[in-house]
Design a protein that fits this description.
By secondary structure, the chain is mainly beta. The strands form 2 sheets. The protein has a 4-stranded antiparallel sheet, with no helix packed on it. Strands 4-5-6 form a 3-stranded antiparallel sheet, with no helix packed on it. The chain has 1 helix and 7 strands.
Length: 153
C-alpha cells in the first residue's frame, strides 16, 4: 500500500496541467435548440457496454459556413455532450471530449462554447470507463478549442 502512495505522489508532483488551445471568441457559437422530448441516445462505453440516455434535444450551429449538430443528454436547462471531431488522436484525446452548455433562452437559442471542451477521466487513466461519442456527435471539422491531448491513455 505504501508503494502506491509513493507512485501517486510522484504522479501528482509531475502533473503540470493540461495544455489548451488559446481561448477564442470564434469557438463560442450561437446555437439553435431543437427539442427531442422522449428521444433516447445509445451511448457505448469503452468496454463495449451500451446504455440508453434521455435526450432533451440537440443544438444546431454553424462552423465556417457549414451546419452541424450535437445531440445532448442531461436536461433542457443543462445540456451535456460527448463529442468527437477531426482533432482527435492528433491534438486532442482520441476518445473524444465532454462539453456542457446552458439550456436555451425563451428565443430557443443558447451558446455552445468549445473553449470549455474538456477531457474525460479515461484520458488520464487506463482504469477509467468512459462513454464514447455517439455516431451523430462526431463532427467532420477540427475543433481547435478547449483541452488538448494528455498522455497516452
Amino acid at each position: 500500500m505504501r508503494s502506491g502512495c509513493v507512485i501517486w505522489r510522484a504522479f501528482v508532483k509531475g502533473f503540470h496541467g493540461i495544455d489548451t488551445y488559446p481561448a477564442s471568441t470564434d469557438w463560442r457559437i450561437k446555437a439553435r435548440f431543437v427539442p427531442t422530448a422522449g428521444k433516447k441516445i445509445t451511448i457505448i462505453d469503452i468496454t463495449g457496454r451500451s446504455y440508453e440516455q434521455d435526450s432533451p434535444g440537440q443544438l444546431v450551429f454553424t462552423i465556417r459556413g457549414k451546419e452541424y449538430s450535437l445531440d445532448a443528454t442531461g436536461t433542457k436547462e443543462h445540456l451535456s455532450f460527448v463529442f468527437a471531431d477531426a482533432s482527435n488522436k492528433h491534438e486532442t484525446y482520441g476518445g473524444g471530449r465532454f462539453l456542457e452548455a446552458d439550456g436555451p433562452g425563451t428565443d430557443g437559442y443558447t451558446y455552445i462554447d468549445f473553449n470549455k471542451a474538456y477531457n474525460p477521466p479515461c484520458a488520464f487513466s487506463p482504469y477509467a470507463t468512459c462513454p464514447t461519442p455517439p455516431k451523430q456527435n462526431r463532427l467532420a471539422v477540427a475543433v481547435t478549442a478547449g483541452e488538448k491531448r494528455y498522455g497516452d491513455h
